[in-house]
# Entry
Amino acid sequence: MNLRTTRTRLGAAAVAALAAGALALGASPASASASSGYVSGADTYTDDFGDEGVLSTSSYSSSNATCLWQIILLAEGANESDGTDFDLSDVDGNFGPNTQHATKRLQVTWGLADSFNDADGKVGPNTFGYADSKLRYLSGSTASGGTLDLRYQGAKYYFDVYRTAGKYRIYHNDTWHTTSYTSNTCD
# Structure
């Protein structure tokens, strides 16, 4: 056995192990909820939104999950790019520039960014997770498979959501919508 070859192999193995570890640490884990296809939760409702997939102009940009977020923007009275409040006509499940602008304004209002320019306009763990603090229990069960009736208490309005068998549902345009990441029935 050649010592130099062994050292080279050991060195190459160490570099490969470090590279694999760096990739594992650098890769973002897929959200359990986004991978299931729905905004979802289990047990307590106070931590359901913080592990959701990121909503943005390039991620789940046309979805019922975005529709849920837009209803949150409406309930909070977030400002649109023209300076008016986000309104019902803006709730279409499409995460465009107006939704991004209102999200940035809300991130500043909630203290998640120091200024509009510092806000990223994406609905990630911090932003979506903050919305958890606005959910209020109305009735139902947190048991697996149970139905839970919750109220989102925004700064301007409130709205009710249901969590049935772990999946959230919202009421929009006279219809109940399951908050899917892969379909948009809100527009």
About this structure: Residues 1-31 have pLDDT under 50 and may be disordered. The two ends are 69 Å apart (CA to CA). The chain has five helices and five strands. The chain has one domain: 39-178.
